[in-house]
Amino acid sequence: MKIHSLFNDKSDLYEKARPVYPDEIYRYLVSISPSNLKAWDCACGNGQVSEGLSHYFEGVIATDVSEQQIANAKPFDNVIYRVMPSESTDFPDDSFDLVCVAQAVHWFDFPVFWPEVKRVLKPDGVFAAWGYTWPVLPDEIERIFHEQILNVIAPYWATQNSLLTGHYKDVEFPFEGLSSPKFEMKVEWDLDQFFDFIKTFSATRRCIEEHGEAFLDAAYEQIETFWSAGEKARVIPLEFVFYAGRNTE
């Protein structure tokens, strides 16, 4: 299966359900970049990170291999969207102060991607990658989430997802690592929003294609009892991983 096909069919749901990254990330990135002239948002999806970068960088180039994701991206005066693979671009050498990837670096062909990033980054430019993995839930909801959802969709994850869930420990970043703040990511969701988020998982969508949504309906009914015991909307932390490094070559 081609990677872009995992994100084409539900680009509208992806835009609605995916969490928003904290603004502190963008403030930090511009503070460590050599200037705020230009940033490249790789695998930009619907442009969520592109929007954040647009408030801090004079120009943002945002690329994705999914035409539908780009079609759904929000327009901004200083953001240019293009359909383009991150491993092969037509950008000039030394173009960017910052190259960043949110929730997607695990999909790239590293032997091809890293040389391309180094080529287009300015000397002392910054590369950053980040992503979230699992929601941190109360015990009873956590048990149902794992038993009735994660265990069911487990066979449908692509191999690359383990790099993200492993918090990038097996990714060999070819940059001089920087000591970064510990960012926290939290969302406030009702139960429907939580399940919309689950449906954006590539593994969930592939499982639904084969077996339908009955397993989600059953899990929803079980979780609803515990979810409704408190507030309708819950504040849910998400496990979060962040890397930043400097191009010293």
H/E topology pattern: HHHEHEHEEHEHHEEHHHE
First-last Cα distance = 35 Å
Quaternary state of this entry equals single chain
Per the CATH scheme, the topology name is Rossmann fold
CATH hierarchy, class: Alpha Beta
Mind describing the biggest β-sheet?
8 strands, mixed
Rg value: 18 Å
Helix content range = 25-40%
Mean pLDDT, all residues: 91
Which class do the helix and strand fractions yield? Answer: alpha/beta
* Shape type: elongated
Enumerate the spans where pLDDT stays under 50 for 5 or more consecutive residues.
Answer: 1-8
Q: How many DSSP H or I helices?
A: 11
Instruction: Tell me the strand percentage band.
Output: 15-25%
Q: What is the level-2 CATH architecture name? A: 3-Layer(aba) Sandwich
Into how many domains do the coordinates divide?
A: 1
Number of strands: 8
CATH superfamily: Vaccinia Virus protein VP39
Keywords: Methyltransferase, Transferase
Protein name: SAM-dependent methyltransferase
Pfam families: Methyltransf_11
Domain Methyltransferase type: 41-128
Structural summary, described in words:
The chain is built from 11 helices and 8 strands. The protein has 249 residues and is an alpha/beta fold. The chain has a single domain, classed as Rossmann fold (3-Layer(aba) Sandwich), CATH 3.40.50. Strands 1, 2, 3, 4, 5, 6, 7 and 8 form an 8-stranded mixed β-sheet that branches. β2, α5 and β3 form a beta-alpha-beta unit. α2 packs across α9 and α7 packs antiparallel against α11. The protein is elongated. The N terminus is likely disordered. One of its GO terms (molecular function) is S-adenosylmethionine-dependent methyltransferase activity.
